[in-house]
Amino acid sequence: ATLRARGSCLTPRRMAAPSKMLPLRARWEKVTTMDLKMTPTSRRNQQSCACCVSASLSCHSLFLPPFWHPFLLFLHMSQNIFVGMVINAVHYSSLNAGKSAVTTFTLYLLCIYVADCMLTLFSSVLYTIAATRCSCRLRTLVLRNMLRQDVAFFDTVRVGELLNRLSTDTEVIQMVVTANLAGWFIPLCQVVIGLIAIFTYNWKLTLVVLSLIPVIAVCMFLQGFCMKILTEQELIALADAGSKADETLSNIRTVRSYVMEEKEISHYADKINISYLIIKRRAWIAGGLSSITNLAGDSCILVAMWYGGQLIFQNQMSVGGLVSYMLFALQSVFAFSSLISIFPQFMEAIGASGRIFELLDRVPAVNYDGGYIAPNGIEGHIEFKDVHFHYPSRPKIKIMNGLSVNLPPGKTLALVGASGCGKSTFIYLIERFYDCQGGSILIDGMDILKYDPQWLRDQVGLVQQEPVLFAMSIEDNIMYGSKICTHARVEQAARLANAHDFIQALPQGYDAQCGERGVMLSGGQKQRIAIARALLKDPKILLLDEATSSLDAESEKLVQEALDRLMVGRTCVVVAHRLSTIRNADIISVIQGGKVVESGTHDELIAKDGVYRRFGARQFGIVGLAEGLQVEDTSRQEDPAASISGPFSAVEALRGVAKTRGDDTDIMDAVQDLAVMDAEPEGLGDLAREM
User: Fold this and answer.
1) N or C: which end of the chain has fewer CB within 10 A?
2) Does position 183 have pLDDT exceeding 50, yes or no?
3) Per-residue model confidence (pLDDT) at position 75
4) Euclidean distance between CA atoms 523 and 445, whole angstroms
5) Which residues of the chain form CATH 1.20.1560.10?
């Protein structure tokens, strides 16, 4: 009815009707050559077509065969043809009794609409499946590449920024690639075929319609350029805000203890407000340019209607021909608008993909896999030869400056030195978290760079100073990293690590959840679980970085005994500040200035008047560990325990302390106990710390 009303308004008089009704095929050929039609009928059909084809394109490999793409294009193009035929049949019905033709063409259109509806429904489901699959694969690929990066990468990039790339950036790419680029085929075909059709039909009318296309093109490129820049800025701002939120939530206990909640909220609000301002600026630019583009497109349609009406008045175009022309023009405009809308979003995706592909294309400094795999495993001989190293994030600070160490297999090496001297770095280099910049590290006589990193790490067990637990059960945490394991072995490892008793005391036992980062357990409990995890792995090389630092005195003694038994026949590297935990080590190396300045057993180093002896003296709070130790600086010491010169015993030291503090019962009792026990200097240090 609407089309008929349009025709009556634009047509002052009826044109001469054909002398007879033509067969369907002849009518088809006549209409296609005379009225020159294309495909679309309305904005709804164009959008439906775009949705259908985008789904079929993205799901091409899933369900839809290739010939469906041109079939869908043909299906929508045929709508214009039949609409023009219906208009002409209605227009000439009083002269040729074309009621049957109207009914026939209407039924054809109904079949096309029903087919379009069914295919749209089917393709929408497939599109959703394809889009979700694309998103999952992209996120998995990004995470895989993140985990393959060397540890130095994580020293300089914040976790919040990486999480933002994993979520927000991939979502932008998914939306553009799967939802928009997948629908470029049909709109592009509609634009090309539509232009050919309307040029062939009436080139004068087409030139008038296309006069506003340059305005649309300029707006499109301006919008795309602005969207790319602003999207990059927005993603950077969101990543900065996400990093701040992640840092705050990860350290919630510290934030709460210092009553900094409102301050952190204010910092986050400031950072998120930056993204808000960028988005607001982008909205104004996109809205303004889109409005101009839409106005230019609508003006094309108005010009086509006005000039087409003039042609009808001049008897140069039929009513049905103008309707078909308008449908082709509308379809071309809508299809072109669809392509235009893809462009700025595509530029947004370029801004997001730049950060993603920067990560995907990054080659880690330490190769992730590939290399030699010893068929019989390794013996555990470790040798550092003139190793030079600095952290990539701090190139001006030398950590190792010609460090050399030789550790035979099955022996225990203890590293001693001030904080920051490179003890933990020694362990990181064995794990190949980093590679040294000079010298070489040998495992069983072969350069560590030649081994397969993953296989090598599988031969090494690591217990760090800060135990790391995951948000899963205690048993799963102990089994973490072990390929084949039973509950009996888990329990055995827990017993050896002195963790079985407290685990059994929990309501759920080994199934008890540790919470995120092990927040539901104490520091000592987490440390013992981490030790059990390393014991269960049964590595050839065992690395202990302050592994017993969080244990109480009783647990430390039991765990130390278990570790002493397990270290037999295993190459061990122990980092410790408490000399009581390393006195039984086969080799103790003192690191200072990036080099090993002293090396030997505990007794050998104590006998020397060197760094190790002075380090132990400072640790115990007195300048002396054994008979014969001389005072370094007595002028600044007020405590008699720190100002004794010449030979002394533990009893004499505590008796001097008692004289300065008065009649202290605890100290006098300790003096009597030491006199009976003939305590060693190390026991004196423990007692001094307790008092």
Assistant:
1) N
2) yes
3) 55
4) 38
5) 27-360
Q: Helices 2-10 and 68-91, interaxial angle, to 10°?
A: 60
What tens digit of pLDDT does each residue of 30-73 get? 333 333 333 333 333 333 333 333 333 343 333 344 444 555 55
For the chain, what percentages of helix, strand and coil (3-state, to nearest 5) are there? 65, 10, 25
Distance, in Å, from the CA atom of 497 to the CA atom of 516, rounded to the nearest integer, reads 22
Q: Beta partners for 407?
A: 382
For the segment(s) 382-604, the CATH number from 3.40.50.2300, 3.30.70.2740, 3.40.50.720, 3.40.50.300 is 3.40.50.300
Tell me the mean pLDDT in the region 230-248: 79
Please tell me the predicted confidence (pLDDT) of residue 558: 65
Please check whether residue 145 is in contact with residue 303, taking contact to mean a CB–CB distance below 8 angstroms: no
Distance, in Å, from the CA atom of 687 to the CA atom of 223, rounded to the nearest integer, reads: 75
What does the radius of gyration of the chain's CA atoms come to, in whole angstroms?
Answer: 40
- % of the chain surpassing 90 pLDDT: 8
**Helical packing angle, 43-58 and 185-201, nearest 10°:** 130
Q: What is the dihedral of CA 443, 447, 448, 453, to 10 degrees?
A: -120
Q: Which residues have a Cβ under 8 Å from the Cβ of 143 and sit 6 or more positions away?
A: 166
Region of 594 on the Ramachandran plot (φ > 0 left; ψ -120 to 50 alpha; else beta):
left
Backbone torsion region of residue 379, taken as left when φ is above 0, otherwise alpha when ψ lies between -120 and 50, otherwise beta? alpha
Q: Which segments of the chain belong to CATH 3.40.50.300?
A: 382-604
DSSP string, 625-666: SSTTPPPS--TT--SGGGS--SS--HHHHHHHHHHHH-S-HH
CA–CA distance, 228 with 585 (Å, rounded to integer): 61
pLDDT digits (tens, 9 = 90+) for 505-531: 888 888 888 877 777 887 778 888 888
CATH architecture of 27-360: Up-down Bundle (1.20)
Q: Rounded to two decimals, what is the model's pTM?
A: 0.61
Measured between alpha carbons, how far is 367 from 76 in angstroms, rounded to an integer?
54
Spatial strand order of the sheet with 595-600 comes to 460-463, 541-545, 571-575, 412-416, 587-592, 595-600
- Residue 495 CB neighbours (<10 A): 16
Averaged pLDDT for residues 293-317: 77
pLDDT tens digits for range 554-563: 767 766 776 7
